[in-house]
Amino acid sequence: MEFAFIIEKFILIIVVFVITLVIAMYSTLAERKVAGFMQDRLGPDRAGIFGILQPLCDGGKFFFKEEIIPAGAHRPLFILGPTLAIITACIGSAVIPWGQALTIGDRVVELQVADVNVGILYIFGVVALGVYGIMLGGWASNNKFSLMGAVRAASQSISYELAMGLSIIALLMVTQSLSLKEIVAQQEGFVNWNIWAQPLGFLIFLICAFAETNRVPFDLPECETELVGGYHTEYSSMKLGLYMFSEYINMFVSSALMAAIYFGGYNFPFMYDLGLSANWITIIGVFVFFIKIIAFIFFFMWIRWTLPRFRYDQLMNLGWKMLIPLALANIALTGVFIILKDKFF
């Protein structure tokens, strides 16, 4: 039984890893297609039908480009930076429940790599580690533009993690659990989705997710108009590709997390009124979950081609003077709501 459990988890890890890489790979194509649509042009359309092979061409370009390490760079840390960035990006999806259990023969297979009872804390720990990859790469490059981008990334991450954590505290007051599996299970039925109980908390979390993934309008660590390429200015070949891939993987994991904790995850309206078997409901739930994730990814891209980036002082003011006070107010309002609900209902 233990051997079968290990095989199940190994297969699930491989499947999640492959899906993550494929979605990240084709997010690069989707980004350019969305940009083309919003700018009234086609976007990539030469490599395969509708440009479907463009991500493979881009990946091949990264693999075959010349590998350059600056003479003044700290070589071990220069290599460690993008490695750490991609590892922390990939392991974030380990605690996300992708669906209900599947029954295969006499075995019940959980569609979650690790059911950790402190899954939310695990996610925040991984997010906190991710900035080290950027910081190491920027410092080890021995380039002032790279270092400035890395310092921006570190200070931005610290600032917005506070507001993000405070927004989650209000959610935990409602759900009474740190387990992602339990939080998603509680949202059975459309009216039980946490977005209805925590609309302000979701808005704060969404804004912080943009900042944590360094997406426009919070892409100050890269900011091509000021810092050439930011923390990855000196990177080339696949090391540059790892940094870019980690950004898209972080966007995918952030979208999955928001869909899971605020929009019911794999739950969908009338799921038990269809008269289908449990396995079919699980399969449909997985597809519904990925539709929600893709909708969030599209929103990330839509914002990129709609809003200009902030100035750095505006970014800091938003984080410290607006989002953190709003998150604290949301905690207070949630506490009052819970007290009144327990007293009168």
Automatic annotation (TrEMBL):
Gene Ontology cellular component list: plasma membrane
Reactions catalysed: a quinone + NADH + 5 H(+)(in) = a quinol + NAD(+) + 4 H(+)(out)
UniProt keyword Translocase, yes or no: yes
Protein name from the UniProt record: NADH-quinone oxidoreductase subunit H
Gene that encodes it: nuoH
Domain of life where this protein originates: Bacteria
Keyword Chloroplast: no
Record's keyword terms, sorted: Cell membrane, Membrane, NAD, Quinone, Translocase, Transmembrane, Transmembrane helix, Ubiquinone
Stored HAMAP family: NDH1_NuoH (MF_01350)
Subunit structure: NDH-1 is composed of 14 different subunits. Subunits NuoA, H, J, K, L, M, N constitute the membrane sector of the complex.
BP GO terms, sorted: aerobic respiration
Compartments, record wording: Cell membrane; Membrane
Molecular function GO labels: NADH dehydrogenase activity; oxidoreductase activity, acting on NAD(P)H, quinone or similar compound as acceptor; quinone binding
Family: Belongs to the complex I subunit 1 family.
Membrane-spanning parts: 6-29, 77-99, 119-139, 160-178, 190-211, 248-268, 280-303, 323-340
Pfam families xref list: NADHdh
Entries under InterPro entries matching the protein: NADH_UbQ_OxRdtase_su1/FPO (IPR001694), NADH_UbQ_OxRdtase_su1_CS (IPR018086)
Assigned EC number: 7.1.1.-
Membrane topology annotation: Multi-pass membrane protein
Purpose: NDH-1 shuttles electrons from NADH, via FMN and iron-sulfur (Fe-S) centers, to quinones in the respiratory chain. The immediate electron acceptor for the enzyme in this species is believed to be ubiquinone. Couples the redox reaction to proton translocation (for every two electrons transferred, four hydrogen ions are translocated across the cytoplasmic membrane), and thus conserves the redox energy in a proton gradient. This subunit may bind ubiquinone.
